[in-house]
From TrEMBL, chain A:
<dbReference type="GO" id="GO:0016779">
    <property type="term" value="F:nucleotidyltransferase activity"/>
</dbReference>
<feature type="binding site">
    <location>
        <position position="62"/>
    </location>
    <ligand>
        <name>ATP</name>
    </ligand>
</feature>
<feature type="binding site">
    <location>
        <position position="171"/>
    </location>
    <ligand>
        <name>ATP</name>
    </ligand>
</feature>
<dbReference type="GO" id="GO:0005739">
    <property type="term" value="C:mitochondrion"/>
</dbReference>
<comment type="pathway">
    <text>tRNA modification; 5-methoxycarbonylmethyl-2-thiouridine-tRNA biosynthesis.</text>
</comment>
<dbReference type="InterPro" id="IPR032442">
    <property type="entry name" value="CTU1_C"/>
</dbReference>
<keyword id="KW-0820">tRNA-binding</keyword>
<feature type="binding site">
    <location>
        <position position="166"/>
    </location>
    <ligand>
        <name>ATP</name>
    </ligand>
</feature>
<comment type="function">
    <text>Plays a central role in 2-thiolation of mcm(5)S(2)U at tRNA wobble positions of tRNA(Lys), tRNA(Glu) and tRNA(Gln). Directly binds tRNAs and probably acts by catalyzing adenylation of tRNAs, an intermediate required for 2-thiolation. It is unclear whether it acts as a sulfurtransferase that transfers sulfur from thiocarboxylated URM1 onto the uridine of tRNAs at wobble position.</text>
</comment>
TrEMBL record, chain B:
<comment type="pathway">
    <text>tRNA modification; 5-methoxycarbonylmethyl-2-thiouridine-tRNA biosynthesis.</text>
</comment>
<comment type="function">
    <text>Plays a central role in 2-thiolation of mcm(5)S(2)U at tRNA wobble positions of tRNA(Lys), tRNA(Glu) and tRNA(Gln). May act by forming a heterodimer with NCS6/CTU1 that ligates sulfur from thiocarboxylated URM1 onto the uridine of tRNAs at wobble position.</text>
</comment>
<keyword id="KW-0819">tRNA processing</keyword>
<keyword id="KW-0963">Cytoplasm</keyword>
<dbReference type="GO" id="GO:0005829">
    <property type="term" value="C:cytosol"/>
</dbReference>
<dbReference type="InterPro" id="IPR019407">
    <property type="entry name" value="CTU2"/>
</dbReference>
<dbReference type="GO" id="GO:0016783">
    <property type="term" value="F:sulfurtransferase activity"/>
</dbReference>
<dbReference type="Pfam" id="PF10288">
    <property type="entry name" value="CTU2"/>
</dbReference>
<dbReference type="GO" id="GO:0000049">
    <property type="term" value="F:tRNA binding"/>
</dbReference>
Length: 345, 520
């Protein structure tokens, strides 16, 4: 005998919310899930009327649900937003090509236009090519650095006012733990911000900041949303895996651990004396960078010169090496926004 | 997203190197020499490349301890210092360092007058070998005090500490170290405890009462995590109170770098981000000017401490606590310990990195008031977009349902403003609270004084605070502990006194609010 829905709507409950432990029926869960995201959006004042917003879409569960919920809420509460899906094609055969198919289906289902940018167009390299050069060990460094910039470039090209990403509460808690383990005080400080954006870059926000990953899966499952779920074929994810396992252990001990860690992250105060890097712009591509030359340009320089390890290591040493070898430019072009072509998927 | 960071690679390389060195040291080609003096054979491998002989290690270790204390510039010459002594390896090493330092005769003498304070936790940890801890404490030639954990439950004015009188087999003739008549030779035996006349402890009956209250509180704590944090909190409160009572301004704790790293991370996991700084700081000033709590071992790892104990033959009793031998799933503290030590085994920089992250944090700025339980700033003011508000909102949404909930009329401030948003919603699902203890939660409802106007302050004093009143005065982390409590009737007096006092003040303010100029 299934328990009744906690809200007293009279229907049988079909799930127990991981976040609160309440048993809810399908409709009440959908409503609660959406209302909470709406609450986050309004409480944090994420959007302004008339804004053009890009949903970073990978085809995975978080971004699929995000696209769906953004469309729903935009209509229901009349945010007055213009939405667009923005995908990055890293060029990973057997992974991204499949997930992009999902994004294309989402485009048709939700009626939101889609823009796809590829590493190949932006940088002249696909991840498949990069992995051939650098092997499996450090390839995530390339992918992560390139993607961050690629999203910004795509957004700039589209002329959007901001980007929303599908980062959920679990992701953020995990990042807090990772940054403590790495001693990265600057990231620790900003990783819990719901919205990031400094001069010269397009603001990004995380409407799912307080949404549990499990609830996103539940939502997708019961809404029968179409998403792609395969781990990246190049990502062994070793170190992050430890943090993830730790979080799972914590959650088993105390169900609210995820949100407790976010609370901790929100209330941390960084010592004034702790030196934080200042943000400037890259002398080559004008993208924001804390170093004279941004990481993406250094990584690319290494790839183009056939010395893929150039950009790996301590940033001070990397900058030194990059300066020394700057003259010997390789055969492929550097990042140049003029060469970017936007394929309207 | 990046799987293997540069730091990890360095760790991996470090590990390979360490294994190489170890193999070298164990080879038959003769002993490897100490890296420092290059004359004596090395006996221990501390980190990669750091192989030491015994003397160099002990010297470096002692130096680190002394410099940590010295750098603080917080000590006054020849000031009395109280060392918290559990008999475990870290506090035994600290007791040794302090007593040896203080009894040196040359110019390098540590200018402190140490005494030891042991906490009798047998009320909640029956396995604790109190006699053995007392015996060990007696071997340090310094005055020894004892406090029973249950004493912390009593009113804040009551005495909690007594002098332990060690009957010695032989009289010591030394005049170094302790300033009072009690001096024990290193091998003192058979210690009996006798209350000194100076302190008037609560009588036996009262202590038994408090003991029963503590045990009830203990059994009401519904989780290993709540027990662990309660014990930790009560113990530090007791230590602080004992030091204040003895008129000693310095309290030394034997927290190692390893322990601090674990407690920093488990603090974060328990929602105590706002207090992360205090958890790893050298000096803990939460008790104000009259008491300075120092952690002079904070730059030494538990491995170093264990090596020191081994090579200097420091005696200790293997520590016992409620979590001894407990699986990692027993509590957040245990899970974190397992996690950090596990990582440390593969990535030797883990502990020091985590610890140093803590040192880069600062105390959260001025808050209106402190938590009634942990005495650190309240971090529950939240804001419209905060984890606290989001949790509250979820709770509201889940229980009201779409038909009874009108979002448009409320706007985003509903959860934040309406419900004051300082209190976490009760834990749902496990039914541990709320439903089984009906209370006058709705303030202003005209009931027994939960903020209602009609109640005089005299009434509020004698009454135990309700769960709701209590929660309002607690920080996020302590609220989580309370959520795990089956009932909150047996809270220690220092908490209930504080809550009552604040409630009274708040009521007073309400009465005169209309006439206050700056607030209207």
């Amino acid at each position: 005998m299934a328990p009744k829905c906690k809200t007293g709507c009279g229907k049988n409950a079909i799930l127990k919310r991981p976040k609160t432990g309440d048993a809810l029926c399908r409709e009440c869960f959908f409503w609660a899930f959406e209302t909470e995201v709406h609450n986050t959006v309004t409480a944090a004042r994420l959007f302004r009327r008339g804004q053009y917003v890009a949903v970073a879409a990978s085809g995975g569960k978080d971004s699929t649900v995000l696209a769906h919920v953004m469309k729903e809420l935009n209509q229901r509460y009349d945010y007055g937003l213009r939405l667009v899906l923005l995908s990055i094609d890293e060029g990973i055969t057997g992974y991204r090509d499949d997930s992009l198919e999902t994004v294309k289906r989402n485009r048709d289902q939700y009626g939101i236009p889609l823009t796809v940018l590829s590493y190949e167009d932006l940088y002249g390299w696909t991840m498949d090519d990069i992995v051939k050069q650098v092997g499996l060990r450090n390839n995530c460094t390339f992918c992560g650095v390139f993607r961050r910039q690629a999203l910004d470039r795509g957004a700039a090209q589209l002329g959007v006012d901001q980007i929303v990403t599908g980062h959920n509460a679990d992701d953020i808690a995990e990042t807090v733990v990772m940054n403590v383990l790495r001693g990265d005080i600057a990231r620790l400080q900003r990783c819990t911000a719901i919205s990031t954006g400094t001069e010269g870059s397009i603001p990004r926000s995380k409407p799912f900041k307080y949404t549990y990953e499990k609830e996103i899966v539940m939502y997708a499952y019961f809404k029968k949303l179409d998403y792609f779920s395969t781990e990246c074929i190049y990502s062994p994810n070793a170190y992050r895996g430890y943090a993830r396992a730790y979080l799972k252990d914590l959650e088993a001990i105390r169900a609210t651990s995820i949100i407790d860690i976010i609370h901790s992250g929100e209330s941390l105060a960084v010592r004034d004396a702790a030196r934080l890097p200042t943000q400037g712009t890259c002398s080559r591509c004008q993208y924001i960078s804390s170093q004279p030359v941004c990481k993406a340009c250094v990584l690319l320089q290494g790839l183009n010169q056939g010395r893929p390890r150039l950009g790996i290591g301590k940033s001070s040493k990397v900058q030194e090496r990059a300066r020394e070898t700057e003259g010997e430019s390789g055969d492929r072009s550097e990042v140049d926004s003029a060469t970017v072509t936007v394929g309207a998927g | 997203m990046c799987s293997i960071e540069e730091g990890d690679l360095a760790d991996l390389r470090a590990r390979e190197e360490a294994q190489h060195l170890k193999a070298q040291a164990l080879s038959d080609t003769g002993p490897t020499l100490c890296q420092k003096c290059r004359s004596a054979p090395a006996v221990l491998l501390l980190r990669v490349n750091d192989i030491y002989c015994r003397d160099c290690f002990v010297a470096a270790f002692t130096h680190k301890f002394r410099s940590t204390l010295g750098k603080s510039r917080l000590l006054r010459p020849d000031e009395p210092a109280l060392v918290a002594f559990s008999g475990g390896v870290a506090s035994s090493v600290l007791a040794r360092l302090v007593s040896d330092g203080a009894s040196q005769t040359d110019s390098k003498r540590l200018r402190l007058r140490p005494s030891l304070l042991m906490v009798d936790e047998s009320a909640v940890v029956p396995e604790q070998d109190v006699k053995e801890v007392e015996r060990l404490a007696g071997t340090y030639r310094v005055p020894v005090y004892r406090a029973k954990l249950e004493a912390v439950m009593g009113a804040s004015g009551a005495h909690v500490v007594e002098r332990v009188n060690c009957k010695l087999k032989e009289e010591s003739t030394g005049d170094d170290g302790g300033t009072e008549s009690l001096q024990a030779p290193p091998e003192a035996a058979s210690c009996d405890s006798v209350s000194s006349e100076a302190t008037v402890l609560p009588d036996e009956a009262r202590l038994a009462e408090l003991r029963a209250q503590l045990q009830q509180l203990w059994s009401a704590a519904g989780s290993g995590t709540a027990r662990e944090q309660l014990l930790e909190r009560l113990r530090s409160e007791l230590l602080a109170r004992a030091a204040l009572q003895l008129g000693i301004r310095l309290l030394l704790l034997a927290d190692t770098e390893t322990r601090l790293a674990v407690s920093l991370l488990s603090g974060l996991a328990g929602g105590r981000g706002a207090h992360a700084h205090q958890q790893t700081a050298l000096a803990d000033r939460r008790h104000g000017e009259r008491l300075l709590v120092l952690r002079p071992l904070r730059e030494l790892s538990s491995k170093q401490v264990a090596l020191f104990a081994h090579h200097c033959r420091v005696q200790y009793v293997p520590g016992v606590g409620p979590d001894t031998m407990a699986p990692a799933s027993a509590s957040i503290g245990r899970a974190t310990e397992e996690f950090v030590l596990g990582l440390q085994a593969s990535f030797p920089a883990t502990v020091s990195t985590v610890y140093r992250t803590g040192t880069k944090l600062s105390a959260v700025g001025a808050m209106t008031e402190d938590c009634a339980l942990c005495r650190l700033p309240l971090d529950t003011s939240g804001g419209a977009a905060s984890a606290l508000q989001a949790t509250r909102f979820s709770q509201m949404v889940s229980s009201s349902g779409p038909d009874r909930f009108q979002y448009d009329h409320h706007s985003a401030d509903t959860a934040a403003g309406d419900a004051r948003a300082t209190v976490l919603p009760p834990a749902a699902g496990n039914g541990s609270c709320g439903t089984d203890t009906p209370r006058c939660v709705e303030s202003g409802g005209g009931c027994c004084g939960g903020g209602g106007e009609g109640c005089g302050s005299a009434q509020t004093v004698s009454r135990k605070p309700s769960r709701e009143e209590l929660l309002e005065r607690l920080c996020y982390g302590c609220q989580l502990v309370m959520k795990d409590m089956k009932e909150v009737d047996n809270m220690p007096s220092f908490v209930t006194e504080e809550v009552a006092a604040r409630t009274r003040r708040e009521n007073m303010r309400k009465e005169i609010q209309d006439f206050l100029i700056e607030d209207s």
